[in-house]
Amino acid sequence: MTGRRARVLAIVTLAIVLPLVAVVVLSARGDSDTTATRPAAAPATNTPATPEPTDVTVIVPGRPGESAAVKGAGEVSGAGATPHNSMDEWFVRMMIPHHTQALDMAELAPDRAANPSVRAIADRIRASQGPEIGMMRAWLQNRGLSADMPGHDHGTMKGMQSPEAMRQLAAARGADFDRLFVRMMTAHHEGAIEMATNLLSVGADQQLNEFANSVATEQTVEIDRMRELLAR
Questions:
Q1: Which residue, 168, 193, 169, is CA-closest to 181?
Q2: What is the pLDDT of residues 32-76, one digit of tens each?
Q3: Are 193 and 219 in contact, with CB atoms under 8 Å apart?
Q4: Residues 6 or more apart in contact with residue 109 via CB below 8 angstroms
Q5: What is the pLDDT of residues 156-177, one digit of tens each?
Q6: CA distance 139 to 204
Q7: CATH assignment of 85-231, among 2.40.50.140, 3.40.190.10, 3.30.360.10, 1.20.1260.10
Q8: CA angle 118–129–68, rounded 5-degree value
Q9: How many CB atoms sit inside 10 A of residue 159's CB?
């Protein structure tokens, strides 16, 4: 091969090889850039989803002096609401009109009582039993219960005063009113205490048990105050 032919062959070879080398280099650079900018894939996780609870339990409060019981949701009627029984319903339906009559008696005191202590007792009755009636009505409403007791004569409840006795109290003034008020309200409170005490032995609703205990305690104190007034 002559020197001229060798040079021509070398030039032709370079002309073919150089473009191929350039394509390979550019392709490699593009792959490198893509790898650098591509976001990393999130690592796979095997964390299981939180399972839905299957064993729901309800803590049922006990009556005063008793421990709470833990029961399954299926064992408690109306799980999520405070459990109650028919005696709870009866107590609330009876105590509302009972409290209402006490308020009617207390409303008479400011214009009729002579003794400031009688007026003070009447003030305390209005201040406590008015809100208590609201609480009891809300208790019934929250459970879809009516306050009515068809066919029941509320006048037969322990401590309830007759219409005639209420008229006599409204007609009395001064010391006569004080004596009549104390005698009637004492009997009225004794009836409420008996109702509350009975509920404590048979009721299921913790809120009502606490309320009944409060009624029995506070009205016992008021009876003692009123008896002191009569003894003077």
A1: 169
A2: 444 444 444 444 444 444 444 444 444 444 444 444 455 554 454
A3: yes
A4: 118, 119, 121, 122, 123, 177, 181
A5: 788 999 999 999 999 999 999 9
A6: 14
A7: 1.20.1260.10
A8: 130
A9: 20
